[in-house]
Amino acid sequence: MIVLKFGGTSVADAKNIQKVGAIVAQLLKKNKKTKIAVVVSAMTGVTDELIKISSMAANHEAGYTDLFNKLRIRHRHTIRDLKLMKDKSVNDHNEELFAGLKDILHGVYLVGELSPRTLDFISGHGELLCAKMVAASFKILKMRSGFMDARNFIKTDESFGSALVDFTITNKNLKSYFRETKNEVEVITGFVAATSKNETTTLGRGGSDYTAAIVGAALDATEIQIWTDVDGVMTADPRKVKKAFSIPTMTYEEAMEMSHFGAKVIHPPTIQPALEKAIPLRIKNTFRPEAFGTLISTKSDGGPFLIKGVSSIDDISLLTLQGSGMVGVSGISARLFNALSQSKVNVILITQGSSEHAITFAVKPGDAAYAKKSIDAAFLLEIKNHLLQPIKVETGLSIIAVIGESMRNTPGVSGKLFQALGKNGISIVATAQGSSELNISTVIHKGNLMKGLNALHQTFFLSDVKTLSVYLVGAGLIGNTLIKQIEKHKQFLQKERMMEISIAGIATSKKMYFNADGINLKRYREFLDNDGEKMTMPAFIERMKDLNLPQSIFVDCTSSEDIASHYAKILDSSISIVTPNKIGNAGTYTQYKKVREIERKRNVRFLYETNVGAGLPIISTLNDLLTSGDKIISIEAVLSGTLSYIFNNYKEGVNFSDVVNKAKELGYTEPDPRDDLRGTDVARKLLILARETGLALELKDIKVEQILPPNCLKAKSVPDFMKQLVASDNVFETRRKNAASKQKQLRFIAKLENGKATVSLLEVDTNHPFYHLSGSDNIISFKTERYHDRPLVVKGPGAGAEVTAAGVFAQIISIGNYFEGGN
Ligand code: ADP
Ligand code: ASP
Ligand code: MG
Q1: How far, in Å, is the centroid of ligand 1 from the Cα of 19?
Q2: Which of 171, 279, 287 is nearest to 224 (CA)?
């Protein structure tokens, strides 16, 4: 005997029912001597519809009849599509059921009352209707098939909605029926059963799996197969974790934990009957019968991973009993759980701190109020005497559990779990580990559920490729270059660094566009243009928070003050930041400190190497010196590529204005070259360096020499300025000549010494490391206690989209390493 169970989607319509027929026929061909029992669910959605129709009728909503008629038509159409119109037995059977349903629903409508008994009677109809059609469709395939109404065999108590099976009678009934039957295949209704008085009961939502296990165990089946719409039990719920994959083998205990902790693919009580008789349970995909699926038995081949799966219970409430009256007093928990069991509240998880000051436990949200009432009543005296506090109820929570037998005696599983949640800014409200070490459960806020599941799945299963979710604001020159670099290095990153960068959101100053699965970078402009929403920073932040993806990084490739003003909020949402935008770090010192505080508090990263000297390792070098205990004596630097170019090319025989003009033509300057020549940009960079050394300076504390004469500064337009500059050539020429007479060169230098920061045009001699500077290079010289006589110098191209984007790219990757466990 083999038992097969087909779920709702497997019998959703005539086409699928035919697939089921083909699977059963094939099995029959292979196992000529074996009888087959086929348990079927209602067609997908039908049980939900029946429940909805019932409650509408009970609420006097006349519209219930429309839904009822639709349901009837859906079944009639299925009969038609299965070419069973001429099979009177099916048609009459189903029409009779619908006629009976119509009457009882009318009754519910009239009295406005729906008892659990009546609801079971109505909601069990989906299976009765469906199984009959399936049995008839098998006949067309020339199988000798019969139809079994499980209510005649499976007997239960009167706990309507989730009845308890009387196995003695049930097993006897099933055995004697199957002994007699001459049919090759029996099609049995799942989910429904009956009391000894033949009143319809149900086995709980999703209970058709259980029916299959009951039948399988009663008849000592060689195998129980659960056919559904996925390739077996997967490492996580595939609707929540896109990268979930199927688990080839697991033990009954592992499967039990998975289903108990929310893996809907198997209804929890299903495992027990199979386990007791050691009958293998196989989970298969009706739509991909060739896939191996999952084999659940006494053995599991272990597999390469530390755990088997990650599962969740999406909605729970947490109740806590606490107070000094608990410490050292025995019997408190016995009384507590006694009160719960008397009020029939099922406890999902329990934790107790070793201080014995509190016991915390999780229940279904619907049970919370009732549980509180019964416990508060049980401890009335202690609460009155302030020995215990009334039960505290916390809502809006979920449980995430990691499950698997290999974690037994394997250290480090919980460490990995807490680290993955922590690095993603998910705080743990409570945690419990069963002594069987089959699962570790954590209670978290429901808003973090998807992120938590994905982060844990990534940590435990995808040791190969880690996904970083990037939100990019600013698709100008740098942003665009970054996108191109990410595209270009995609394969290398996946292969060599086991990393994948997925752009989950992108924005220009006008529009924003999101896709949690990653935006196709070749077409992002098109998506922004056609489907983009209006861009505002508060809306962008809300969307990032809603998506709540693990390993999230915000990348600001703008020079906008508005965007920088939101950094604190972004970090506070547990999202790291990488940016070349220096406005944020050059804002007020209070803001600068606040961002760092939040960075620490939230355990996220804020990286901005490209704020100074583009891709050159300036900030990191400075930090390395400081953290290794060195002391900075002075910093001297040429920090503007534009001004570097201008002064490196300003030589004898050339006019200063011509050099500026040339730089402008080459695109080295801002549209208004005064923005460079005023020195503000250099002052900002120096301010950032000064703050890195620990100085609490503001921008106004940086003394900047104005090298432009007043007529140039005052010019109303850029052409006017260029004209004024020609008129001022002699001012510069005097300074240059003066320096040259002493064999010196003019350099625009930022300097930090003795806590003072200045930016000015200085003369340097041939011994100075800046004397031979050429092109538009940046140079920075750190004079420290260690690098005293010969300062540490970093030199190279300090501007340009390619090097800046590459610097940003490198820091994104470094965050990826951080998530992997590095710093
Ligand atoms: P059926 O109607 O066949 O009984 P269900 O909807 O009850 O199917 O169960 C199958 C569904 O369970 C899958 O489509 C999947 O979305 C969900 N599911 C949740 N967790 C898991 C998991 N860990 N592995 C596989 N499927 C899961
Ligand atoms: N049809 C029932 C339900 O939807 C039972 C099942 O599908 O297993 O709950
Ligand atoms: Mg199911």
Answers
A1: 19
A2: 279
Q: Which of 372, 451, 664, 685 is catalytic?
A: 685
- The pLDDT of residue 823 is 46
Residues whose beta carbon lies within 6 Å of some atom of ligand 2? 7-8, 41-42, 47, 126, 190-191, 205-209
How many other CB atoms are there within 10 angstroms of residue 520's CB atom?
Answer: 12
Query: Could you read off the pLDDT of 454-497 as tens digits, one per residue?
Result: 999 988 987 667 889 999 999 999 999 999 999 999 989 888 88
- 4 C-alpha to ligand 1 centroid (Å): 16
Instruction: Characterize the bridge pairing of strands 309-322 and 392-403.
Output: antiparallel
C-alpha 189 – ligand 3 centre gap (Å): 14
Task: Give the single-character DSSP code of 390.
Answer: P
Residue 236, ligand 1, Cβ within 6 A: yes
The closest alpha carbon to 821, from 545, 551, 472, 629, belongs to: 551
Alpha carbon of 329 to those of 374, 380, 656: distances in Å? 20, 16, 89
Residues ≥6 apart with Cβ < 8 Å to 710: none
> For the segment 529-576, what is each residue's pLDDT rounded down to a tens digit?
999 999 999 999 999 998 888 889 999 999 999 999 999 999 999 999
Taking the centre of ligand 1 as the mean of its atom positions, its distance from the CA of residue 263, in whole angstroms, is 7
Q: So what's the pLDDT on residue 412?
A: 82
Long-range contacts, 327-331 (Cβ 8 Å, 24+): 327/355, 327/356, 327/357, 328/356
* Residue whose CA is at the smallest distance from ligand 1 atom 12: 265
| H helices present in 717-784, as ranges | 718-727, 729-741
pLDDT tens digits, residue range 664-710? 998 888 889 998 999 999 999 999 999 999 999 999 999 999 999 99
Alpha helices by DSSP H, 302-412:
332-342, 365-378, 380-384
Which residues have CB under 8 Å from 744's CB, separation 6+? 763, 764, 765, 771
The pLDDT value given to residue 183: 95
Contact call for residues 317 and 364 (beta carbons, < 8 A): yes
DSSP strand E in 508-640: where? Answer: 511-514, 533-534, 552-556, 576-578, 606-607, 632-638
Of the pLDDT bands very low, low, confident and very high (cuts 50, 70, 90), residue 218 is very high
Which residue from 263, 270, 272, 268 is spatially nearest to 230, judged by alpha carbons?
Answer: 263
Closest ligand 1 atom to residue 8 Cα is 2
Phi, psi of 40 (to 5 degrees): -125, 150
**H/E/C letters for each residue in 22-85?**
HHHHHHHHHCCCCCEEEEECCCCCHHHHHHHHHHHHHCCCCCHHHHHHHHHHHHHHHHHHCCCC
Identify any residues that bridge with 271 across adjacent strands, giving them in sequence order. Answer: none
Alpha-carbon distance of 643 to 238, in angstroms, equals: 56
How confident is the model over 338-397, as pLDDT tens digits?
999 888 898 999 987 666 688 999 999 999 999 999 999 999 999 999 999 999 999 999
Among 685, 649, 641, which residue's Cα sits nearest to residue 667? 641
- Nearest ligand to the C-alpha atom of residue 42: 2
| Residues 606, 593: Cα–Cα separation, whole Å | 12
Q: Based on the number of CB atoms within 10 Å of its own CB, is 28 exposed (0-12), middle (13-18) or buried (19 or more)? A: buried
Residues 6+ apart with CB under 8 A from 681: 640, 675
Yes or no: say if 126 and 75 are a contact pair by the CB < 8 Å rule.
no
Ligand 1 atom with minimal separation from the 309 CA: 23
Distance between CA atoms of residues 223 and 246, nearest Å: 20
Specify whether 685 is catalytic.
Answer: yes
Ligand that comes closest to the CA of residue 208: 2
What's the one-letter identity of residue 511?
Answer: K
Give the ligand whose atoms come closest to the C-alpha of residue 241: 1
The predicted structure's pLDDT at residue 563: 97
CA of 527 to the centre of ligand 3 (A): 38
Q: Which residue has the higher pLDDT, 504 or 434?
A: 504
With a 6 A CB cut-off, is 229 part of the ligand 1 pocket? yes
